[in-house]
Amino acid sequence: MQVLTKRYPKNCLLTVMDRYLAVVRNMEQVVMIPSLLRDMQLSTHGYQAQAGVSDLYSYFTMLKAIRMDVEHGLLPRQEWQAKVAGGKADGAETEAGEMEEAEEEQVSGQLDLEAQFHLHFANLHHILTRLTLKAEEVTRRYQEKMGQ
């Protein structure tokens, strides 16, 4: 069966997303034993390691989880907040979160939609590019460890 693939411009968000998905799929195929990535640090090449991500195994699992979100969509907001909070959100935290959301909506209402779009588009493009580089780094480091 022939699969038609459409070519997008180099800086198109779809191109960046497709590249990220392809690199993470490759990482998953190459990394046959993910536990070997434990206690291996990401060589940052000028970047600081992300807070809360301690080793390549953590990056591996994070990159896979993000790939699932990109391919299948996000969880509903309440489910995502419960997942992040570990399901331990109490009334005070919920109230504070609602107040923050109201403030954010007020600020975002002051910006025009086109400016908001460009801001989020640029940030998403930058984040996906950095995640792609991290997935390539995890793959490369695993291959070095395995002697490939």
Key terms for this structure?
nucleus, 148 residues, Thyroid hormone responsive, Spot_14
Explain this structure.
- The chain contains 5 helices and no strands.
- The protein has 148 residues and is mostly helical.
- It is 66% helix and 0% strand.
- The chain starts with 12 loop residues before the first helix and ends with a helix.
- The model has no long low-confidence stretch (mean pLDDT 78).
- It has helices at residues 13-30, 56-72, 77-84, 91-110, 113-146.
- It has one domain (13-146).
- Belongs to the SPOT14 family.
Summarize the structure.
The protein is mainly α and 148 residues long. It has helices at 13-30, 56-72, 77-84, 91-110, 113-146.
Topology summary:
Blueprint: H1 13-30, H2 56-72, H3 77-84, H4 91-110, H5 113-146
Helix pairs in contact: 1-2, 1-5, 2-5
- Give the biggest sheet: none
Number of domains: 1
Number of strands: 0
N-to-C terminal Cα separation, in Å?
Answer: 32 Å
* Structural class by helix and strand composition: mainly alpha
Total count of helical runs of at least 4 residues: 5
Low confidence ranges: none
Mean pLDDT: 78
What is the H-and-E element order? HHHHH
Keywords: Cytoplasm, Nucleus
InterPro entries: Lipogen_MT_Stabilize_sf, Spot_14
Protein name: Thyroid hormone responsive
Subcellular location: Cytoplasm; Nucleus
